[in-house]
Design goal:
Length: about 525
């Protein structure tokens, strides 16, 4: 080492204007490479730790306590150009001092939507689970990547235990799985697995000589199935959308017709995707009947239970997913109804013959050496389409440890009970009209302002009603009182979709929701 250091010191004497460098090298016995002194760390750890401590206090106060306080705003709306100025988004050559960074962090929290607020009903996720949040703090600090046991021993074992328990609730005796970066990716995994099972040569030989493949899903399914077909080269025209009934459930007889159509066209059917909890209506496809059809035609049966999978934990509501044990694969997102924190999504596979690994492995020898000193079956990263992968299972594992299965089931039962309460209140109140009786936690309804209540429900009525929800949404966001989603759907004009998830939500919040909509919209 001394020879190497002295040789670099010699190089320094030839650098123009290096008298100061020479003095520094002699005084500190430093090593210089390409004009960079290599002795010691360049990060001020004490200052960094102080920043973390101060930021942590702010996070607890602003992003935890206030963000879950029903008396605080859900959001502080700003238009994009104004928000850019308030956040000082530009990046510069020189760094900012810590106090300025703390001010920026405070602004980020202030102007962000508080998704943990009891009156955030906008998406299929909401609320704050404190156990999950602790787990996220830990994984952010440790910064693990879950691909090999040598670098992530703890989180690989926790993922294995969590997947095993989820598989048990699906009703399989054994299986496989992996946590993925979202239900969309889980659905893409399932599509790729189904194709590999049907035609394994595609992995190496590609699509050029392959038969035209066709996949089937409900017209109410998540748009990720269409994206999966595009991304995997199957083609969006080869996604055959199956008609759903008025409640949003796939019609088995229509699936049979579509399969026959594909076969008559000379195409190869290979996958059916059912949905357990559709995004808008919260509908559950008839899994048993669809499984019969898949079994008859030899098709891979995937169930997208990203939203509805949580009902499996409830003895009251698990019947919604009757027949899911017959699926070949299941997508399930604990970050939705179970509040494990975004993102926390699992793909579960009935196969236990390493199909997941065979389909996706690339056998990178710098990661997955087979002569390691431990059991390499724990190096699960080759099952994934990713290399680096977050320790998402830990959030769900710690929450499950804290609450137990009974505690998780209570959350599901309470959310659905609150939904039923809201439905009953909507039926009582003048100016509110349900689209349909909900099957899950999706409560879809119209608000009809006084000016429209005595109108005949003709084309003009529906055109005017279509304009009501967007105006109310704008007003609630600018006021910051709550957030509630709306959308048109099929032949229905804009309506509100209220989602109940968080155990912090109360009956009073359901009453407030209806009162606030009436307050914001009664002049329309």
């Amino acid at each position: 080492m001394s020879d190497s250091r002295s040789s670099w010191q010699g190089v320094a004497t030839h650098i123009p204007g290096c008298n100061k460098l020479e003095a520094m090298l002699k005084r500190k016995n430093a090593v210089l490479v390409d004009g960079v002194v290599l002795n010691g760390p360049i990060i001020d750890s004490k200052a960094g730790e102080q920043l973390i401590e101060e930021a942590y206090k702010m996070i607890i106060e602003e992003a935890v306590r206030k963000a879950t306080d029903v008396t605080e705003k859900v959001c502080e709306w700003q238009p994009p150009e104004q928000l850019k100025k308030l956040l000082d988004v530009e990046l510069r050559d020189s760094g900012e001092h810590h106090q300025r960074l703390l001010q920026l962090c405070q602004s980020v929290i202030r102007y962000s939507v508080k998704t943990s607020h009891p009156r955030f009903f906008n998406q299929l996720y909401a609320g704050m689970d404190h156990y999950s949040l602790v787990a996220r703090f830990i994984t952010e600090a440790l910064n693990p990547s879950v691909y090999t046991y040598e670098v992530s021993p703890v989180f690989l074992l926790l993922e294995e235990a969590t997947l095993k328990k989820m598989i048990e609730f699906i009703g399989w005796k054994e299986g496989d799985g992996i946590f993925s970066p979202g239900g969309s990716i889980s659905n893409m995994y399932a599509t790729n697995l189904a194709r590999y099972k049907y035609c394994p040569d595609i992995k190496e030989k590609g699509l050029s000589g392959a038969q035209r493949l066709v996949m089937f899903t409900s017209e109410e399914s998540h748009y990720s199935m269409k994206k999966a077909a595009s991304f995997l080269g199957i083609g969006t025209q080869n996604v055959y959308f199956v008609k759903a009934d008025d409640s949003g459930k796939m019609i088995p007889e229509e699936l049979e017709k579509q399969i026959q159509r594909a076969k008559q066209e000379g195409a190869a059917p290979f996958l059916v995707c059912a949905t357990a909890g559709t995004t808008v209506l919260g509908a559950f496809d008839p899994l048993d009947k669809l499984a019969d059809i898949c079994e008859h035609h030899g098709l891979w049966f995937h169930v997208d239970a990203s939203w509805g999978g949580a009902a499996l934990l409830s003895k009251k509501h698990c019947k919604l997913l009757h027949g899911i044990h017959r699926a070949d694969s299941v997508a399930w997102n604990p970050h939705k109804m179970l509040m494990a924190g975004i993102q926390c999504c699992a793909l579960l596979v009935k196969d236990n013959t390493d199909l997941l690994k065979r389909c996706h492995s690339a056998q990178a020898t710098y990661l997955f050496q087979q002569d390691k000193f431990y059991d390499v079956k724990y190096d699960t990263g080759d099952k994934s389409i990713q290399c680096s992968r977050r320790a998402d299972a830990f959030k769900f594992w710690l929450m499950w440890k804290a609450l137990g299965t009974r505690g998780l089931a209570e959350r599901v039962d309470r959310a659905l009970a609150l939904s039923r309460y809201l439905v009953a209140e909507i039926k009582k109140r003048e100016g509110f009209q349900l689209l349909m009786e909900p099957e899950y936690a999706n409560v879809c309804f119209w608000y009809i302002p006084p000016s429209l209540r005595n109108m005949e429900q003709d084309q003009e009525f529906w055109q005017k009603l279509h304009q009501v929800a967007p105006v109310i949404k704008e007003r609630m966001m600018k006021k910051g009182s709550m957030m509630l989603g709306y959308q048109p759907h099929r032949d229905k004009v804009n309506f509100f979709r209220q989602i109940v998830i968080s155990p912090q939500v109360s009956r009073e919040d359901m009453d407030f929701l209806l009162d606030e909509i009436d307050l914001l919209g009664k002049d329309l």
